[in-house]
Each structure stands twice: as C-alpha cells, then as structure tokens.
Amino acid sequence: MALEEEEARAPARRQLTPVPGGWMGRPLAETRWMLEAWRLMADPVAYGLTVPHGDGRPVLVLPGFLAGDDSLLLLRRWLRIIGYRPQTAGFHFNVDCSDRAVDRIEGVADALAATHGRRIAVIGHSRGGHFTRALAARRPDLVSHAISMGADLQGLFGISSPTRSAVGAARQILTFTGRGREPDCFRARCTCGFIRDYTADFPVDRVRLTSIYSKGDGVVRWERAIVPEADCVEVTGSHIGMMANRKAYRAIAAALAEPERVAVAPATADRAHA
C-alpha cells in the first residue's frame, strides 16, 4: 500500500496537506548544508551575540532519521554558549521503532528533570521533531518548550520519494529483527503508544511548541510543518543544514527565552500511553 493511502487511513486528528505522489525532493539543494554551516560560523549568533541567553535550563536534543547525536554537535556547543545545558538521548543511528525510541527518550527526560529540579526543553530535527511532539504531549509535566526543526507535524510521511524508500527499508529491517513493537511499525496506520501520543491534542496551555521550517527544504514538504498548535517560524535554507542554520538558531533562542506556561505535577499529569 502506498504511503498516501496509509495516511488517509491513519488515526490522525488533523487535516493533512497532500503530498504529490513521486515528489523527488530537492537533493541538489541539500548539498548546500556546508555553506550554511560556514555562514553560521561567520555570524555573531554562533558566539552567543544578538540573541537572548538562558538560565541553565536542560535541553534534550534529538537527531533526525538515520542520524545520530553527533549530527547535533554544533547545536549543543551553541546551546552551552547561550546558557543552556544540552543533553543527548544516546542515538547512534535514528532508525529504531518509534515507540521504543520515545520510551527511551522519556527516561532520559525524566532523569534530567529530576536532577535539575525543573522541566526541560526538547529540540528535535526531522524525525526528532516527531519524537519531540509526542514526548511533550505525553509528559507536559517534564517538558516546558518543544521545538521542531524541519519535521512534518501534520503526519509522518510528508517526505520525498527517496526518503520514503529509506523508510521502507527501515521497516523491513525492523520486521526482520523483531524490533518493531507492532506489526505496522513504521507505517502511518500503526497504533502504538508513540502514534497515540503524536496524534493526541497538544497541551498548548502547558507546553510551548515551535515549528521551524524552510520552503527550501529538500526532504520534507514545508507545508506539513505548519500546524495551528505551534508557533511556526520560517527560515531559509536546506533540510540537513537546518541543524547549523543561523536563522534557525535565532528562532531557537527566541523560543527558549519565552516564559514557561503552567506546569503540571507529575502525579496528576495526563498519560496518553497509560
């Protein structure tokens, strides 16, 4: 079954912006990510100038599909410069079952919040943005700020055809190894805890959600990053380069500087996966 058909049958609560079948993305445009990184290093924002600084809040950073924690080295370095405490969740190759991944992320977030005695911020790139939204919906008692970069927040598969092929390969691997918790793992119609949390109404009264997107994104359809529950911020640049994009960094600093919304005690938090 084509992913377009799967999405039509998926238990999503929001209207999906259609993705044209056979969209190949913009692979050549994605090669400019190195230029974007150089531009960042030549910009005052890379050194903590011209942006608001934090007060030591822990920030959990989550990589995109097929990427690992090392892909976010520049972002973590910069977060330290502007006064935050970045932390990773132990990703080497982000291709595991989403339900398993978010459970692991939740454990890291729980420990961080307990250690620092406060809610944390979470920043996710691409697939990491899916995890960010799901975790914040599941545990608003742990997450104060949720920031997504270049992620389809309307569904899961508003992506280019080559990326869809990679997703299909990952699905076969999970099926072969038994890592998927559900028979439909890595499919839009999966009904695991991650999907339930991801498609749940977002707790906008308790968590600030920011979606950073680019119309030049060559992997994810930019229209799918726009959702009513988020502050949607447009930047210019590529999908891969968003991890080192000076305009995205400014948007991140501005989002993290926003005050917390009402916190929820852990004992009374809604647990969508319970």
TrEMBL record:
It comes from the Bacteria. Gene3D superfamilies: alpha/beta hydrolase (3.40.50.1820). SUPFAM superfamilies: alpha/beta-Hydrolases. InterPro entries: AB_hydrolase_fold. This is Alpha/beta hydrolase. It comes from Paraconexibacter sp. AEG42_29.
